[in-house]
């Protein structure tokens, strides 16, 4: 029986990937980099060290990932804050699982400020008992550390948790943590998510409920 759900944030709880794309594009323009290819999906679930190794390798060597990421995230929050809202169907899904005693946590590779922006703007305290972000761990996805930390904060065993993701690195992290994983097609094509090993691929939260998730563990 599953007792907890761990949600990635960007592309799962919130439709923020276009705003992240705009922020990264502006970063590349700011530093005259021609490495922005327009596909933010390739970076889904990556830590800043991997992202900036591709986009801004010279600046990464000079300043480090943390400094560049702080700059990019300030731009992101300026773009996204005015329109922050939860994914369509998510509230109805959460209201449907909570009567079953399901505990929920955020499990994001994003920074603390981004998670708190979503937490406060979208009122996540109504449904969520915990959150884990990049600031809380040593290794980001595809390491399982974020999801294992989230399970621990919920007081649950890994096998009692189901992960919701949108990225290949997130699927790999969930599998490494010993958890079932449901993926949304908000960022990547269904085929890539299936190839990555997702246990279930959905287009929206309207396609799942408590009973369908429970069946994944049988």
Low-confidence stretches: none
Shape category: globular
Summarize model confidence as the mean pLDDT.
Answer: 94
Multimeric status of the protein: single chain
Number of helices: 10
Order of helices and strands: EHHHHHEHEHEHEHEH
Provide the gyration radius in Å: 17 Å
The helix content, as a percent range, equals 40-55%
Helix/strand structural class = alpha/beta
| Number of domain units | 2
Q: How would a crystallographer describe the biggest sheet?
A: 6 strands, parallel
CATH topology of the largest domain: Rossmann fold
End-to-end CA span: 9 Å
The level-1 CATH class of the largest domain: Alpha Beta
- Strand order, largest beta sheet: 3-2-1-4-5-6
CATH superfamily of the largest domain: HAD superfamily/HAD-like
Strands, total number: 6
- Portion of residues in beta strands equals 5-15%
Based on the coordinates given, report the CATH architecture of the largest domain: 3-Layer(aba) Sandwich
């Amino acid at each position: 029986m599953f007792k907890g759900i761990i949600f990635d944030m960007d592309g799962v709880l919130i439709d923020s990937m276009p705003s992240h794309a705009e922020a990264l594009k502006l970063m590349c323009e700011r530093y005259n980099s021609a490495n922005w290819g327009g596909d933010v999906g390739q970076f889904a679930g990556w830590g800043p060290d991997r992202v900036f190794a591709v986009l801004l390798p010279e600046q990464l060597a000079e300043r480090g990932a943390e400094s560049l990421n702080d700059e990019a995230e300030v731009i992101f929050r300026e773009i996204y804050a005015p329109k922050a809202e939860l994914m369509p169907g998510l509230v109805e899904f959460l209201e449907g699982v909570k009567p079953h005693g399901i505990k929920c946590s955020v499990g994001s590779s994003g920074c603390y400020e981004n998670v708190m922006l979503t937490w406060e703007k979208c009122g996540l305290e109504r449904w969520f008992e915990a959150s884990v972000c990049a600031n809380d761990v040593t290794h980001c996805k595809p390491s399982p550390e974020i999801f294992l930390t989230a399970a621990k904060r919920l007081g649950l065993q890994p096998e009692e948790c189901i992960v919701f993701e949108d990225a290949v690195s997130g699927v790999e992290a969930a599998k490494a943590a010993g958890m079932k994983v449901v993926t949304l097609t908000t960022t990547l094509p269904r085929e890539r998510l299936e190839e990555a090993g997702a246990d279930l691929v959905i287009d929206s939260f309207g396609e799942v409920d408590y009973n369908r998730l429970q069946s994944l563990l049988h």
